[in-house]
Amino acid sequence: MAAPRATLIGDIVGSRHAADRRALHREVRAALDAVAAGALDAPVFTVGDEFQGSYPTVGAALAAAWAIRLAVAPGIDVRFGIGWGEVSVLDAATRIQDGPGWWAARAAIESTAETQRQPGLAQVRITYRNDARTGPPTDLVNAALMCRDHMFGSLDERSIRILRGLVAHRSKKQLAAAEQISPSAVSQRAGRDGLDLIVLASQYLSEIA
């Protein structure tokens, strides 16, 4: 029986130029394992540098994509396509799937790659598509995703580390000690770079049904 679900396709950007592709895959695979809980199909590598998974809601798939991206940044760049639609299991033994949900995710990741080539949109990494009949509206979701991608793509390594800590619910005092800077410096950086805003926006995106 076909049933709607959120589908996720991810792809490592520029992996052919990596000095150690095995180490790169190990790091991404660890990030995939960390978002397996709650998945309908835990994300796994399929062919080459592409991985796929599925989730019960668009918000859950967006949260998984964001967690993966945040975990491996800035050393590894990953782009995503998130889809929504019916998915059919074609072969129960091999779990081969097909349907509008996967077609939407494929269209989404292709759109991500195309959008990245446009002036002013080079930071886009996550795009959402649905089957045009059901699912959250694409324009509204993508507007939020594009803004978050632009903000995140503008961060330096220290701000990414601080953001990762904020997402993990570490206090600014703890993050300041880890970075060997003052708590006020962490707060100033969080305000300047919009780190608290990124955390809040990500929470809202994760709650999309």
User: Are there runs of 5+ residues with pLDDT below 50, and where?
Assistant: none
Please identify the oligomeric state. single chain
* Total beta strands: 6
**Largest β sheet strand count, sense and barrel closure:** 6 strands, mixed
Specify the helix fraction band: 40-55%
User: Order of helices and strands, N to C?
Assistant: EHEEHEEHEHHHHH
In whole angstroms, the N-to-C terminal distance is 21 Å
- Helix- and strand-based class? alpha+beta
Gyration radius, to the nearest Å?
Answer: 17 Å
Shape: globular
Number of helices, where a helix is a run of at least 4 consecutive DSSP H or I residues: 8
Please report which band the strand proportion falls in: under 5%, 5-15%, 15-25%, 25-35%, 35-45% or over 45%.
15-25%
Overall pLDDT? 94
